Amino acid sequence: MTLLTGSALVALAACSSGPSSSDGGGGLEPITMSYATANAETSGVSQFDTWWMDEVTACTDGNVTFDKHYSGSLYTQPEMLGAVRNSELDLGFIASGVTPNDLPVFEATGIPFTANNGVAHAQALAKLNTPGSLLAAELERNNVHALFYRAISGAATFVKEPVETLAQLNRQKLRTVGPVAIAFEGIGVAPVAVDSTAIYESVQTGVVDGVGSWLFDLGPAIGLDEVAPWVVDTGLGTYSSNLMGVRLDLWETLPQEYKDCMESASITLMDGVQAGILEEADIDACDAMLAAGGGVTLISETETAEWRDNTRGDLESSWLENAKAAGYSEGELSAFLDAYVDAYIAAAEASDFVPGTILCAERTR
Predict the structure, then answer these.
(1) Which of 2-6, 218-222, 224-228 has the lowest mean pLDDT?
(2) What integer pLDDT is reported at residue 15 of this predicted model?
């Protein structure tokens, strides 16, 4: 079934009210679905998921409930895709940059220096997720059906002291993963791979000097404001893509009434609810950073442009070679990337969302 967004689908959202209480849920069997994420429950991205699950439970008159596990308590991020693929987990936080060999097409949408509007980024992904598309087929091979794509902040670099230029990051040990590590190596950073559940401890104990790429709202959610109260927006932009994935073998067996409720919640979420949640989460993150004596600085557009020009080609080539090794042709991969960029630009032009780091920089003295 296709993941769609937009006002044209308001009718579906309005009519998908689920089984009525008068018929006891229409005789449908109640189910409890397991859900796991590596993110803290208070983070913006987890609030998206919690809102969605609450909506589904209400829409089905309590017939669909969720066994929720946050902060990597059930599966770490590298384990998440495998857990869904192997039918060990019903719903999982699936992210790019973690298992590139399993989701090489999905990786294209997380190439740095491509996007900086997280809301438009999510809408572009949803537009590409059509039946038979390269993205949908790749997810299906991994037993994943995308319920919705999450709007996320751009890359925030958490450090202990304010940073005004990229040169100040030279020789710093920063926690980074995926393509971002390649980008940071280009400016002299020493990338260090650290699991998301161990980020706070690694900064606190000095294993790393800071965190090279992390969502702005996730920082205070794991306590980074206590050990690295400064954020520098380097201009890397949206460095990761993620989705709420339900295991396909379960999705195909769900009653249509339950599917309708899930799709209705996804439409409403992506049509504006998650933008509001993200904006509030970013404001809260800024409040926490300022209260800790830190704030946000911005690298100049000129310096970011030079970094991008020296790095973007290598990042795209690296992705292309990895995806070709998985059996895709260069032509279909290039067409997919072009389609993503076009969809993102169109969505960004229609969006009034402003990244939280930019707004917080205006509040930083």
Answers:
(1) 2-6
(2) 35
Nearest to 238 by CA among 363, 67, 119: 119
Answer with the residue of higher pLDDT: 196 or 251.
251
- φ, ψ for residue 41, nearest 5 deg: -65, -30
Element housing 317 (H / E): helix 301-325
Which pair of structure tokens corresponds to residue 61?
Answer: 């008159």
Q: Phi/psi class of residue 270: alpha, beta or left (left: φ > 0; alpha: ψ in -120 to 50)?
A: alpha
| CB count in 10 Å sphere of residue 318 | 15
Exposed, middle or buried: residue 322 (CB in 10 Å: 0-12, 13-18, 19+)? middle
Query: Which amino acid type is present at position 80?
Result: M
- How confident is the model over 23-37, as pLDDT tens digits? 344 579 999 999 999
Which run of H or of E encompasses 69? Answer: strand 64-69
Contact assessment for residue 148 and residue 268, using Cβ atoms and an 8 Å cutoff: no
Residue 182, both tokens: 């390649």
- 233-255 pLDDT per residue, tens: 999 999 889 999 999 999 999 99
Q: What is the DSSP string of 17-49?
A: --S-GGGTGGGPPPEEEEEE-SS-TTSHHHHHH
